[in-house]
Amino acid sequence: MKIAVVILNWNGKKLLEQFLPAIVKYSPQADIYVADNASTDTSISFVKANFPTIKIVQNERNFGFAQGYNEALKHIDSQIYALVNSDIEVTENWLKPIVETFEKEPKTAIIQPKILDYNRKEYFEYAGAAGGFMDKYGYMFCRGRIFETLEKDSGQYDDNCEIFWASGACFFIRSSIYKELNGFDADFFAHQEEIDLCWRAFNKGHVIKYNSKSVVYHVGGATLQQGNPMKTFLNFRNSLLMMVKNLPKNLLVPVFFMRLILDGIAGMQFLLQGKFKHFWAILRAHFAFYRLIPQNYRKRENFQSAKYYKVKSIVYLYFLKKIKVFTKIFDSK
To answer: Which of 17, 91, 217, 300 is deepest in the core (most CB within 10 A)?
Structure first.
């Protein structure tokens, strides 16, 4: 199958210097693209001078992650898109198990590899780990990562299984499905747009999978650090936006009522910790969300599955029942 590896770049010369060599070395069967969001550094001249086989797609301005990929992929013809963060280190044969799964499983639309921490290679990485899930109230967690707890990789997730969402850090999707879903939601700008895309794919009956035989390492936080208030704002706002779009109608009011309470508790925790900017980020996220409700409600499809979650509240399980490991979640039920 024809596969395109597409790296979205914005002023990321240092990351391209560090991680492009492995992508070129270990991706002989792929066409490699750098999709540039109107960088002002020398990253594109660096790529042209040092990697002449890599193709450049130049966006008119910094569109962010969501629209940045939407614009770039209009110019790329391939059966599979491999959307790869510029701070990802790939490994030998990382593409082979992904392509094989797509070839053998026509219903599989999206795949995530095993994502480990670049700085602690024996541990799973925050953004995706071994595949993502969601609780009833829209809080995300992963096999290998629940909130801030990261598991050591001891082979406990060495499988090929269905998941609910795949990480945008290294995200494989059939181009036909990407087009069917009209790509990422540009209103998100960055953060959780891949989860929204997976949720929309799930509602349409498509399968999202994790494949442990493909392994990559992620630096994480190369664009926005985990402790950045803007990241807090985008995560809270975008989580609420995708719920408006994808929740069944009968769950909208009760779920949003509970989210208001839970987000309020999160805000108070930030306040008590002296993290005033994060407290304000949650408030701003809610106000921004309220303004965007009408236009996002209009994006709803004809069908929203009520089977989007496997646990009612990961917040309850993690903070009150002290369950920190994914494999113990279902033992507690």
So the answer is: 217
Ramachandran angles phi, psi of 228, nearest 5°: -80, 130
Separation of alpha carbons 127 and 124, rounded Å? 9
Amino acid making up residue 161: C
Pairing type for strands 3-9 and 80-84 reads: parallel
Question: How is the beta sheet containing 140-142 ordered, strand by strand?
Answer: 132-134, 140-142, 145-146, 149-150
Number of neighbours of residue 5 by Cβ within 10 angstroms: 26
pLDDT tens string, the chain, 333 residues long: the values are 999 999 999 999 999 999 999 999 999 999 999 999 999 999 999 999 999 999 999 999 999 999 999 999 999 999 999 999 999 999 999 999 999 999 999 999 999 999 999 999 999 999 999 999 999 999 999 999 999 999 999 999 999 999 999 999 999 999 999 999 999 999 999 899 999 999 999 999 999 999 999 999 999 865 555 678 999 999 999 999 999 999 999 999 999 999 999 999 999 999 999 999 999 999 999 999 999 999 999 999 999 999 999 899 999 999 999 999 999 998 755
Q: How many CB atoms lie within 10 A of CB 35?
A: 23
Rounded distance between C-alpha atoms, residue 16 and residue 116, angstroms = 19
Amino acid in position 178 = Y
User: CB–CB of 304/246 below 8 Å?
Assistant: yes
Contacts (Cβ under 8 Å, ≥6 apart) of 97: 211, 213, 214
d(CA 132, CA 165): 5
- Displacement of CA 271 from its chain's centroid (Å): 28
